[in-house]
Amino acid sequence: MKKGLRNWRLFSLFGMMALLLTGCGKPFLSTLQPAGEVADMQYSLMLLSTSIMVLVIVVVAIIFVYVVIRFRRRKGEENKIPKQVEGSHKLEIIWTVIPIILLLILAVPTVLTTFKLADVKAMNDKDRDKKGTVVVNVRANLYWWEFEYPDYGIITSQDLVVPTNEKVYFNLIASDVKHSFWIPAVGGKMDTNTDNKNQFWLVFDQKATDKAGGVFYGKCAELCGPSHALMDFKVRPLPRDQFDAWVKKMQNAKKPVVTDPVAKQGEAIFNKSCIGCHAVTPLDKRPEQARTAPNLANFGDRERIAGILEHNEENLKKWLRDPESVKPGNKMTGTYGKLTEEQIDALAKYLMSLKVE
Amino acid sequence: MSTIARKKGVGAVLWDYLTTVDHKKIAHLYLIAGGIFFLLGGLEALFIRIQLAKPNNDFLVGGLYNEVLTMHGTTMIFLAAMPLLFAFMNAVIPLQIGARDVAFPFLNALGFWMFFFGGLFLNCSWFLGGAPDAGWTSYASLSLESKAHHGIDFYTLGLQISGFGTIMGAINFLVTIINMRAPGMTFMRMPMFTWATFVTSALILFAFPPLTVGLIFMMMDRLFGGNFFNPAAGGNTIIWEHLFWVFGHPEVYILILPSFGIFSEIFATFSRKRLFGYSSMVFATVLIAFLGFMVWAHHMFTVGMGPIANAIFAVATMTIAVPTGVKIFNWLFTMWGGSIKFTTPMHYAVAFIPSFVMGGVTGVMLSAAAADYQYHDSYFVVAHFHYVIVGGVVFALLAGTHYWWPKMFGRMLNETLGKITFWLFFIGFHLTFFIQHFLGLTGMPRRVFTYLPNQGWETGNFVSTVGAFFMAIATVILLINIVITTVKGEKVPGDAWGDGRTLEWAIASPPPVYNFAQTPLVRGLDAFWLEKMEGKKELTPAEPLGDIHMPNSSFLPFVIAFGLFVAAFGFTYHNDAGWGLPVGILGLLITLGSMFLRSVIDDHGFHIHKEEVLELEKKGANA
């Protein structure tokens, strides 16, 4: 067992090293760097439960190490018959009662937090101040996200824009299969079901946003098909006044005005092949069943192409040429026929010019 | 007669195994089939880890990755872990309670062949378009959307067939343990593994029907125009999640309770002490099983059930930690004051404690609903359940393999190779899964086929992949060990480890076909140990030596299961091809026809005469 112990130490050393290397993750993505009230509450609950559990592990480990070293069969003890002990009521009561107490310590804050996080009264209040409480309708689709601001009458996709330092409320639903809406740094996830609407709230902290570089990563957390891994979105929290300005710009963004001749060509192609699914105005009035593809009104301002590729013209062309190679199983493949390189160039130029900011 | 060992040709041996109803041979069948599926599931795991070794890898992309991931989970749970546990139950339970066989030997064989053909059917999907790709949980909206191939149909039909087999096995063990205990073996004198099997069987009996209902609904929706999970037609997809987890959570205990039982035997044997707090162990087992049915919705905290349901299920889940903790301390105190011999099985048992405690405490962390919103469907959960299932169940399977191998096959597995396997597996296991807690906490969702660079996940994933290879090498060494042992392992006496406590160690290794020449009299817990302590070499018989009544072998269980296998193919393709429906009906006819034959043919079995028994006993004693 001496050898065994050495191996143990080696292993824990290895674990520690790996831990150090990983650290606490990236500020824009890690639950260990909470960036808002919800994530904070959850983080405290994690810390509390972890410390209770470490206590348990330490107690078990001490008894374990002692027993395994002290009571091993040594040379000359081959015929030793230890005393056959039936049990001990005293000990058994101790290790029943102490865990119960520990669990109570964990259960109370768990229940309180669970209720607090589920409090969405404000968003369902009919007399609420529509400008004061931001509500976002999140609709998850096979590999893209739609964000509708019902109070402002605007729709955007892939990049969620929210005000900082206040509660933002969400209505969550999926239009095809079940997905799950998760912004790890900002707070725990909630599923987007196909059957019913879920509601919850998050707070995006301004300081944490600055630390994260202005953008948080959002993920789909429920297996939804071949491109589940690629169903990312980005969150851009803005101070309230900037958020209001953004909303105003979105509301005023009418039909895109294209001047560049190549982009104009692109617009013609777009209007022939793409407009059936993609809208280019944030004021899309169609019902959600008709909105079968991401709204592209502010495509030029986006963080990523197709949610995952770096935002540049080259990647956009790659995506337009063969979406399947970027996101297997996506719904755009094969819906717009074959485009020539020239057409793709024009289309890319046009799409990149779609900006509201 | 089939089992009286003589030199036989390969064909005869094969026929023997195809028709056997002997619990010891059925145990071999479960061990072999479960072992093969375990290797298959392990290979799939390795593929998963290779794909995730670096960001943007293209080894297994998109849909194919999802197929491998689904089959890894489904295979490991339904086709590897459970059958391997069934192998040990079959090999050991009748011996531990002093019985000649299980209560329904024919049903026992039928159960095995159902599991086997169900598993075979499921794996046929690889060659027929594609495997199921909606995860082992097969959530309804995604399953119904998966229309490119018949993968999900192979899942629903394959699991229904193998599920029938599992329920049969469970009923069989319940009846066996209730009715066939040797004289003197009261319930509170049963070995812990027998208790665990008893409680597990009850769990299966209540947990599998909800799964079957869910699978039938899913089958109806996909193959026969049903709308159970179609919201547009008044169906509901959340119902699938409830049905699945009402089964799925007890399933965890179906796996872990027998594992606890195996470890309880090993701790007592190699500490040379009776199990500490036996009655509290029994009580804890029953309590865990009971609570296991009350907590399923903790898998669904993020579904949107509301704070009341979430809070109730959170607290209910936490309570399971109490009886589990009781067990951990009882094992520690079984070793306390004992004389611990570090054999290979004991290595696994000892390593199980810290490993399983790790999995247990993350379980409690997950039960805190509000915090679970962060953990749910992230790699933290992947780490948690692998700590429980590998650190608990797989360790138990490996421990049980080394512990009972001499009893099952009469030869001892090589201890040195066994310990090498252990260390490689142990290190590889922690290397693979420990780091995954942190991958999850730093935002990595589970079931992703790839990840982009610069999200802080590169190192963790690479370490994890390296660990997986350690486990793979360990498994290869175990296989080499098995081959070497089979060819030239040392033969062992009945009490192979020298410290045996329960009845199985009181008879020859491997046991004769009738197990006990005379049913033993049980005078307390650890019956064999008690006799040894009084200086006796054998058990006191409870009956005079006489003719022994044995069941006949039968090919019908194979045919009944085969019929369902054929039928499943027919119904899978009945919408695509004209031959589908006739083949489906033909399959059902094969099954029903052979069931009819079984009902009308009188089979009274045969007797092994007293003289023959005496001769066999003499041979066994000399061996």
UniProtKB/TrEMBL annotation, chain A:
Annotated TM spans: 41-69, 90-112
Keyword Glycoprotein: no
Co-factor(s): Cu cation
Note on cofactor: Binds a copper A center.
Keyword terms, alphabetized: Copper, Electron transport, Heme, Iron, Membrane, Metal-binding, Respiratory chain, Translocase, Transmembrane, Transmembrane helix, Transport
Keyword RNA-binding: no
Domain Cytochrome oxidase subunit II copper A binding: start-end pairs: 131-249
InterPro entries linked: CcO_II (IPR045187), CcO_II-like_C (IPR002429), Copper_CuA (IPR001505), Cupredoxin (IPR008972), Cyt_c-like_dom (IPR009056), Cyt_c-like_dom_sf (IPR036909), Cyt_c_oxidase_su2 (IPR014222), Cyt_c_oxidase_su2_TM_dom (IPR011759)
Record-annotated Cytochrome oxidase subunit II transmembrane region profile domain positions: 23-121
Main location per the UniProt record: membrane
Reaction equations catalysed: 4 Fe(II)-[cytochrome c] + O2 + 8 H(+)(in) = 4 Fe(III)-[cytochrome c] + 2 H2O + 4 H(+)(out)
Membrane topology: Multi-pass membrane protein
Localization per Swiss-Prot or TrEMBL: Cell membrane; Membrane
EC number: 7.1.1.9
Start and end residues of each Cytochrome c domain: 261-355
Cited function: Subunits I and II form the functional core of the enzyme complex. Electrons originating in cytochrome c are transferred via heme a and Cu(A) to the binuclear center formed by heme a3 and Cu(B).
NCBIfam families from the UniProt entry: CoxB
Family that this chain belongs to: Belongs to the cytochrome c oxidase subunit 2 family.
Name this polypeptide is given: Cytochrome c oxidase subunit 2
Organism listed in the record: Geobacillus jurassicus
UniProtKB/TrEMBL annotation, chain B:
Top-level taxon in the UniProt lineage: Bacteria
The protein's annotated pathway: Energy metabolism; oxidative phosphorylation
Main location group: membrane
InterPro entries with a match to the protein in the record: Cyt_c_oxase-like_su1_dom (IPR023616), Cyt_c_oxase-like_su1_sf (IPR036927), Cyt_C_Oxase_1 (IPR000883), Cyt_c_Oxase_su1_BS (IPR023615), Cyt_c_oxidase_su1_bac (IPR014241)
Catalytic activity as recorded in UniProt: 4 Fe(II)-[cytochrome c] + O2 + 8 H(+)(in) = 4 Fe(III)-[cytochrome c] + 2 H2O + 4 H(+)(out)
Pfam families on file: COX1 (PF00115)
Keywords: Cell membrane, Copper, Electron transport, Heme, Iron, Membrane, Metal-binding, Respiratory chain, Translocase, Transmembrane, Transmembrane helix, Transport
Membrane association type: Multi-pass membrane protein
Sequence ranges assigned to domain Cytochrome oxidase subunit I profile in this UniProt record: 9-523
Membrane-crossing residue ranges in chain numbering: 29-50, 70-93, 105-128, 154-180, 192-220, 252-268, 275-296, 308-333, 345-366, 378-399, 420-442, 462-484, 555-573, 579-601
EC annotation from Swiss-Prot or TrEMBL: 7.1.1.9
Subcellular location: Cell membrane; Membrane
EC top class named in words: translocase
Record function comment: Cytochrome c oxidase is the component of the respiratory chain that catalyzes the reduction of oxygen to water. Subunits 1-3 form the functional core of the enzyme complex. CO I is the catalytic subunit of the enzyme. Electrons originating in cytochrome c are transferred via the copper A center of subunit 2 and heme A of subunit 1 to the bimetallic center formed by heme A3 and copper B.
The family this protein is said to belong to: Belongs to the heme-copper respiratory oxidase family.
Name the UniProt record assigns to this protein: Cytochrome c oxidase subunit 1
Organism in which the protein naturally occurs: Geobacillus jurassicus
Organismal lineage: Bacteria, Bacillati, Bacillota, Bacilli, Bacillales
